[in-house]
Amino acid sequence: MTFEESVTQFIRNHGLIHPRMRLVAGVSGGADSMALLQYLCGKRKAWELELAVCSVDHGLRGVSGREDLAFVASFCQRENIVFFGKTVDVRAYCTKKHLGIEAAARELRYQAFEEALGGFGADALVLAHHGDDQIETMLMREVRGRIGIARSGIPVRRPFAGKELIRPLLSQTKSALEAYCAAHGLKPRHDATNESDRHTRNRFRKQVLPFLKQENPSVHLKFQYESETIAEDEAFLLRLAEQQLGSVILEKSADQVKISVPDLLIIPFSLQRRIIHLILNYLYTNRKIQPMHQSIHIENLLQLLRSGRSSGHAVFPEGLSARKSYEVCLIGFLSRVVDKSYDIVLRVPGRTLFSAGTIEAEFLPGGFCVGTAVTGPDSIIIDYHNVAGPLRVRTWQPGDRMMPSGMTGTQKIQRIFINEKIDREKRFIWPLVVDGKDSVLWLPLLRRGWRSSLEVQKREACYLKLTFTPIDDLGRIKA
């Protein structure tokens, strides 16, 4: 089978090009893209194609870059092909966007492709990635621990700028493209940077590919088959994972996702990984950050969630992290722990506002019935004349203890938090009501102190009712 027959068969098998399509080819002037352009020129009449070319000088190679652009323009003029040429300043773009050279060059190149698509009214962008590129990409991603559909390497087709991006040469080798150029008398341009071992891809190309091809000259076809198989399998597994998301997510915002650990862990392992992957992609995308997580990051988090530890955290690239607390895990761009402590004198009577909520203090007449006066764990009644003033509300401090009502000894506040499975972060803002001697009278929503009134009062006294309303859900009641 000839080169052209092989490419045509690949195109037909994947339904990439149809008669009377309007196509823009991305052409650099190198052997790969010139072979693509020559092939499309040969099919232009038979398939009634409307053809245009987009070429970009990245401004990185001085005269050589300008000569590449002129070379492609000359070919297009000779073949009567619409030409879109553009020169960009990659280094300036790097500085402006805080990107590396390769990432900046790619962004600017694809911006130019999008402009050409719109200007030509094209149906698709055609690029010249080939089988050797596919091998390099899949191996590099495997070594770096990429996950999910990224393991499939370069897709045959994908959406782009409201149209399609297609790659009809993925079944061909680099040497086949060079031979095709030579057979048509083409003298492609040569980019010396493709020889530098400074680039990871070049090291794979020069050191790994020759060995693979020696073992199997058709190894590129094996990798292309694996690429398409992985893509199909991953698409199916992702659909299953998406169906399970609703049963796992408890709360969701643009920056954070709270999940139920038990509900996640009853799902098959393969879907657990993909659910975490979907959540991470969602969070990164909302921040307009390219997802950088790898398989090791997801496995570290799942190892934490599957462990018997009640709490812990995992770290992801770009400032994203996860924090487990008992049966809940919060994933997102979480704020670092900062000092949220407070110590405020209560207004008696009156309303006191602080960072965790409000406490309303009101005096009650003697002879009241606690059963009607106290509404739940958000309230306490104390004999105001039997406590040292002033009453204060403050945050927990290490070593704090209290004597809960009904007990004969004291208990550490920290132990109460642990027994009640209070999230570690919430402990630092949870209010304590203390008297003038700094004795803990009340741990709102959790424990009343021994000096609270728990039965009908008949003697003359001055009873004070305190009611706590949290500003946020503290895991016990909502405001």
Automatic annotation (TrEMBL):
Record-listed ATP binding positions: S28, G29, G30, A31, D32, S33
Residues annotated as transmembrane: none
GO cellular component term of the entry, any: cytoplasm
Gene3D superfamilies for the chain: 3.30.465.60, HUPs (3.40.50.620)
Annotated catalysed reactions: cytidine(34) in tRNA(Ile2) + L-lysine + ATP = lysidine(34) in tRNA(Ile2) + AMP + diphosphate + H(+)
BP GO terms, sorted: tRNA modification
Annotated family: Belongs to the tRNA(Ile)-lysidine synthase family.
Name of this protein: tRNA(Ile)-lysidine synthase
Naturally occurring in which organism (per UniProt): Sporolactobacillus putidus
Encoding gene (name): tilS
